[in-house]
User: What shape does this take?
Amino acid sequence: MQKLGKQTIKFDNPPTIVDCATIVGPKESNGPLAKYFDKCLEDEMWGEKTWEKAESKIVKETANMVISKSGIPANKIEYCFAGDLLNQCISSSFGLRDLNIPFFGIFGACSTFVEGLSLASILVENGINYVLISASSHFCSSEKQFRFPLELGNQRPPTSQWTVTGSGSSIIAKNGQGPFITSITSGKIVDMGIKDANNMGAAMAPAAHSTLITHFKDTGRSPNYYDAILTGDLGHIGKDILIDLCKNSGYNINSVYNDCGVLIFDKEKQDTHSGGSGCGCCASVFSGYLFKQLKEKKLKRILLIATGALMNSMSSQQGESIPGIAHAISIEI
Amino acid sequence: MQKLGKQTIKFDNPPTIVDCATIVGPKESNGPLAKYFDKCLEDEMWGEKTWEKAESKIVKETANMVISKSGIPANKIEYCFAGDLLNQCISSSFGLRDLNIPFFGIFGACSTFVEGLSLASILVENGINYVLISASSHFCSSEKQFRFPLELGNQRPPTSQWTVTGSGSSIIAKNGQGPFITSITSGKIVDMGIKDANNMGAAMAPAAHSTLITHFKDTGRSPNYYDAILTGDLGHIGKDILIDLCKNSGYNINSVYNDCGVLIFDKEKQDTHSGGSGCGCCASVFSGYLFKQLKEKKLKRILLIATGALMNSMSSQQGESIPGIAHAISIEI
Assistant: This one.
């Protein structure tokens, strides 16, 4: 691997994404991408007694599904990277505790999936054969933890995003037919002082902008190198901000750019305001929709930039602003 | 790098630990290792308005201190791995948001520091020059989050451990004089069904045992290869359990084994029951005490096994057991 600029690593032997799996909740199952998901749940509980246990079950079954789809024996998978939004990342540790694979817990809020793919790629580039990546979120467990009890029926402001119920899981490998992870651009923490915990898109857009512009500069690429540039989950408002920020930096991304949080829900019909969010948003949109587009060569070069808001409910109560982060990977076939 | 067995990586060009720094709270400053810490705080708040902000300040100042001690310009440090115990790892993201270094958030509970050293070593082995690692915990913010309001003055059972207030930070590099990280043995999640959140030592000891025995088998080493084998924070009870488990597996570790949670407090005088715990325990005992012992060649070969309990307060309320994990690194000079 070689360093390009200060934040980008280009792989000499780009890791292959062998397979992906995704399981989503009922709201996602009624959205525009429903047909791409491997399994659509009819209810948020999936037979469990709590939302947290349901989320762990989604994580577990998604990981089992990708292992099964890939045809790779579980005991050949050498490492697992996993994370989620719940306190102390319990969806991942409870969901994957039976996996019997060396486990690295990661936390990048909604950037977790791409953080995992990035670190896993470094391992695979350097001799590891198979690595599993998992990320998840659950609307109910997240709302309860970060905002208000669902039973209150609180009104949500128009800037708010809807946490995706779902998990995405991928296996990447040293050898294979692609799609290949050709480079990673890892983000710095960017905090522009946004304090509104109901406007995550605005808080995270500057981090996405920083990583995206750095990626262009480090690689010498321009927006039209890619068939698609996808942010993790800036939602409608953050998407517009990013387009503006890029324009101000001299990059017109309009024609190739979209956002996973915008794609996963129908804004008019699903009442999700600014769009989807959560670790499971980017993970399921990539694992369900984008991976299949790459496999079928409908997309040949994409840049996936997952964004995270590195705060908790207490930090907002203590008057803190919301630091953002964004990790990018380029995937080509 | 080469794989030994299924869980161990041996480095061909072992990364050097360039320098370490540690800042601890008042209780740690009255413990047996006080003279080894870089800065001992007189109060838990350090001039901040909340415990959470104080923890972030400790993280920030410890990272600044290791950068300053190392003499490496901050802009030469290519990546940062950091994590802590607070929900969504806010001590790390708020503490390090001004660092301007590509940032990977990690969560391994009290195993976080060694998880960071492990991943950083893989990057450095493969061409990255400098990586910073940070881990922290704070007694007051942890008690409040995981157990009861401190103001309640709840009695603590004899099996409970005392979360260390402190942060440890290290910089590792491709070239240097050592000590060198020669191998890593990364742990699987091990859950033996322990449900007592006031007995973390018992919950984590089986994970430590699994990683330790795997390390011996993967490397062909025996306990007496090392001058010291240190677990992260099993405390007094977990330490005794690990000795027994190893004995049952045919390994006598008695003469070389100790635990960071046992070393950091004086059991008789400091009323800390089963000893220290928290991400900051292993991080500060290593960065303060062990690193200096290695530098002065009082210890020449150590195995550091940090252990984590991958639960949160809600998982225990929902009747879940406590999954443990343990990551090991061997450090030699």
Observations:
- Residues 2-173 of chain B form a domain with the Peroxisomal Thiolase; Chain A, domain 1 fold (CATH 3.40.47.40).
- Chain B touches chain A through 58 residues (CB under 8 Å).
- Chain B has a mean pLDDT of 97.
- Chain B has eleven helices and 15 strands.
